């Protein structure tokens, strides 16, 4: 469902981040991308999310080369993707419910549907009882769960997570990985970039190792 064909990425600074990447990710797969800092993990995820474009080669999603999407198709493509960052960047003056509801409010969904969706997403990440809490009242692990709920509330078919456990203790990190595995069991294709080799190994999923390009 996601295919990289001879993909190169060179940033305008001249820095080469990806060199001839060929990779097929199947629908419904959970895949880890590992490699040292600077190996290009983030860049690979950003190419799928259309946050960057390849310098050469093609990224295809559902057999569609992303470069062929016309501008009108891009918003609906983006809605298929949930992106989770190392830092969830929550709005600190809004409670958990409102943080998660934000993408749905923007899409103009009716309020009763929003409530149902948001509560369902928060239940899935284990925060069903914290809907009224404010981010500062939560632990780092709980804040990251809010970020995950917000990313999946649109029911994306693809979930991309960039070092989602980078700020967490090992035990919390493990829980977060299980949360992703649970969305994968529900059918989402999940890609997680992480440099935590021990954690990745314990999940027993296919793992792609990127090497830093020295060119
Ligand atoms: P990782 O996620 O594995 O740490 P990145 O994809 O962030 O790797 O980075 C790969 C390489 O590209 C690194 O050398 C990094 O410095 C460089 N890089 C990443 N983003 C940019 C950017 N916006 N501009 C210039 N160089 C970048
Ligand atoms: P609903 O159909 O009311 O949204 P579900 O229990 O089917 O309730 O799903 C609850 C929430 O879990 C969804 O709103 C979504 O956030 C998340 N979810 C469910 N299935 C998936 C999936 N395949 N991929 C991503 N997120 C999902």
UniProtKB/TrEMBL annotation:
<dbReference type="GO" id="GO:0051301">
    <property type="term" value="P:cell division"/>
</dbReference>
<keyword id="KW-0131">Cell cycle</keyword>
<dbReference type="InterPro" id="IPR003593">
    <property type="entry name" value="AAA+_ATPase"/>
</dbReference>
<dbReference type="InterPro" id="IPR005286">
    <property type="entry name" value="Cell_div_FtsE"/>
</dbReference>
<dbReference type="GO" id="GO:0005524">
    <property type="term" value="F:ATP binding"/>
</dbReference>
<keyword id="KW-0067">ATP-binding</keyword>
<dbReference type="InterPro" id="IPR017871">
    <property type="entry name" value="ABC_transporter-like_CS"/>
</dbReference>
<feature type="domain" description="ABC transporter">
    <location>
        <begin position="2"/>
        <end position="215"/>
    </location>
</feature>
<keyword id="KW-0547">Nucleotide-binding</keyword>
<keyword id="KW-0472">Membrane</keyword>
<comment type="subunit">
    <text>Homodimer. Forms a membrane-associated complex with FtsX.</text>
</comment>
<comment type="function">
    <text>Part of the ABC transporter FtsEX involved in cellular division. Important for assembly or stability of the septal ring.</text>
</comment>
<keyword id="KW-0132">Cell division</keyword>
<dbReference type="InterPro" id="IPR015854">
    <property type="entry name" value="ABC_transpr_LolD-like"/>
</dbReference>
<dbReference type="InterPro" id="IPR003439">
    <property type="entry name" value="ABC_transporter-like_ATP-bd"/>
</dbReference>
<dbReference type="GO" id="GO:0022857">
    <property type="term" value="F:transmembrane transporter activity"/>
</dbReference>
<dbReference type="Pfam" id="PF00005">
    <property type="entry name" value="ABC_tran"/>
</dbReference>
<comment type="similarity">
    <text>Belongs to the ABC transporter superfamily.</text>
</comment>
<dbReference type="GO" id="GO:0005886">
    <property type="term" value="C:plasma membrane"/>
</dbReference>
<dbReference type="GO" id="GO:0016887">
    <property type="term" value="F:ATP hydrolysis activity"/>
</dbReference>
<protein>
    <recommendedName>
        <fullName>Cell division ATP-binding protein FtsE</fullName>
    </recommendedName>
</protein>
<keyword id="KW-1003">Cell membrane</keyword>
<dbReference type="InterPro" id="IPR027417">
    <property type="entry name" value="P-loop_NTPase"/>
</dbReference>
């Amino acid at each position: 469902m996601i295919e990289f064909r001879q993909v190169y990425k060179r940033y305008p600074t001249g820095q080469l981040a990806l060199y001839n990447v060929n990779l097929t990710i199947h629908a419904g797969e959970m895949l880890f991308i590992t490699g040292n800092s600077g190996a290009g993990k983030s860049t690979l995820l950003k190419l799928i999310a259309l946050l960057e474009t390849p310098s050469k080669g093609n990224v295809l999603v559902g057999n569609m080369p992303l470069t062929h999407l016309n501008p009108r198709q891009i918003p609906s493509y983006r809605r298929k993707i949930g992106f989770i960052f190392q830092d969830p960047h929550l709005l600190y003056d809004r409670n958990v419910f409102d943080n998660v509801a934000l993408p749905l409010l923007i899409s103009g969904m009716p309020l009763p549907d929003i409530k149902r969706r948001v509560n369902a997403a928060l239940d899935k990440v284990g925060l069903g009882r914290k809907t009224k809490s404010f981010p500062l009242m939560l632990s780092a692990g709980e804040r990251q769960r809010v970020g995950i709920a917000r990313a999946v509330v649109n029911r994306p078919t693809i979930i991309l997570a960039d070092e989602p456990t980078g700020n967490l203790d090992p035990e919390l990190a493990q829980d977060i990985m299980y949360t992703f595995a649970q969305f994968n069991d529900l059918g989402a294709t999940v890609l997680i970039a992480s440099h935590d080799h021990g954690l990745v190994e314990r999940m027993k999923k296919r793992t792609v190792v990127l090497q830093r390009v020295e060119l």
